[in-house]
């Protein structure tokens, strides 16, 4: 059959089968249709991405169509909870039609799949509400069934009976979870009933605009995860988040399956300062004020959840969060007072601490830099005192040199990036002159960006401390310091984002599009790989849940020819010795004993692939997890000279207050970084100091 005819027949079949109206009580589910503006917008977005993405003129062919099809199914029903195998078999006839449909602005295929999903969802929510009417006693809480945590290996339900059984298991899991959190039977049924009434209502309120965005982003995401179409409302929310990023709780949220997931926390924001909310946590309920009712948000639209979390400065929002599997999948309530991000918390700041080594006191300076910030407007206005990361760090370096520090730690943990030019200027504070990064984009030849200012703000011993949340521009800085041999990089492997995005305005919404990549001066990319430290510390952030490699369709690894540069010191020649001394020293160090136990537990929990639907087994696992936490963290508290506690609630309170209580002390990783620096100095002073700085060592 000719392709065009096959396409038209497919549209007719799906339109007929999906245009049924779902009668549910006094409400009905109308068929969604593209808005008049959508076909033209689709064609324009397709043209813009194909012309302006870093991967220019990538073929929009059958292979691309197949990728869009798979991605779209994942967006619509990732956990395979609503469609049946018969639906998928019918849709398979369209697998290779999306390329031509997109080029022509034809949206019937995409909307027919959405309409089928809407009907399946509506019917399923009605089934669930009827099922819940049978009460808590009707659920088998002593089952031998284990629920898979990853839906990738699931097949689509063969029929309604198999789908019913899956949902029976899902509901049983929810019942057990709530019972373990001390919910009463009537309360559980009430909460679940409200949850699925909300989901049913939201399903009925799903709009053509949302359907269009889901489909178009299934196309943009085959290029890379950072190329995103924003509908007019999403574009407004995006710009509001940029303008108001210093207000609220300071958290970037995304979606994962039916959950709202914490992607990252704004350094210096209320959530980050509170210390309870973590990246990869999933928000399951939101409450207002200290004692307001908790509203279940599982399955709700992200815009609605954001609206619940936003609120006036000084008010309290309570979040019930489910930790990631790697942390045990336990739930907890986090109370956060909405506030502005304190600017001084996001600015560079310094600290000095002393260490004894062979009877000699060494002073180590620390500069914490939460982001690569720059007041571009102030700079353009010609203001003398505009704020920037480089200017602030340079001033702090002058102050630290006056304090006669023996070495410097630049702490870039949780530095999510920011201004790339600012990061490159920062490199210039520590080298005389030379290349700082290599950039390539939109078919242009590689461009080597250089520091031409021969002034060096600090030429003494340097260590850069990073972790998995160090991303983008901060990775470029750490990579340059490592490539030059200018200093040691310590910590854990960084995030791995090596791409550059721009915002394009459209007649209908906006497009954030990847238009370039940056590379280290060696020609290597930070994409996926990130920066691997010279000496690695225990990993406390799950690299499978956080980082560029956790995204589907992220850009591939590649390399360019290196820039011409001169290595300043052969640090690699002494890394093995420094590592051996570090490992020997931290073998019994209370901080690193604690860090290694956390890492081991995270790795252990990461291997969990199923969750039991037996309440006794779940209770036993929860008790084991609580006992492990109490044992591990009480050992840590004792080592710090603190009193141990008896309960998890007491432990949460003590650990929340601990940072403020020890505010004048450095954490274990910073302290060990200082000791590594001292080893570095003592091993070979000529590697650690340049020019006339050796006088500090002699003192």
Mind explaining what this structure looks like?
The protein has 699 residues and is α+β, with helices and mostly antiparallel strands. The chain is built from 24 helices and 21 strands. Helix 16 (420-428) runs parallel beside helix 17 (473-484) and helix 19 packs antiparallel against helix 20. The longest helix is centred in the N-terminal third of the chain and has 25 residues, at 108-132. The termini are far apart. Residues 1-26, 240-246 and 690-699 have low confidence and may be disordered.
What is the count of helical runs?
24
Q: Report the strand count.
A: 21
Runs with pLDDT <50, length 5+? 1-26, 240-246, 690-699
**CATH homologous superfamily heading of the largest domain:** 2-enoyl-CoA Hydratase, Chain A, domain 1
* Biggest beta-sheet profile: 6 strands, antiparallel
Large-scale geometry: globular
Global structural class: alpha+beta
Task: Report how far apart the termini are.
Answer: 87 Å
- CATH class categorisation of the largest domain: Alpha Beta
Helix content percent band: 40-55%
Strand content: 15-25%
Q: Count up the domains.
A: 4
Computed CA radius of gyration, to the nearest angstrom: 28 Å
- Report the CATH architecture of the largest domain: Alpha-Beta Complex
Briefly note the CATH topology name of the largest domain. 2-enoyl-CoA Hydratase, Chain A, domain 1
Quick description:
The protein has 699 residues and is an alpha+beta fold. It has 24 helices and 21 strands. Helix 16 runs parallel beside helix 17 and helix 19 runs antiparallel to helix 20.
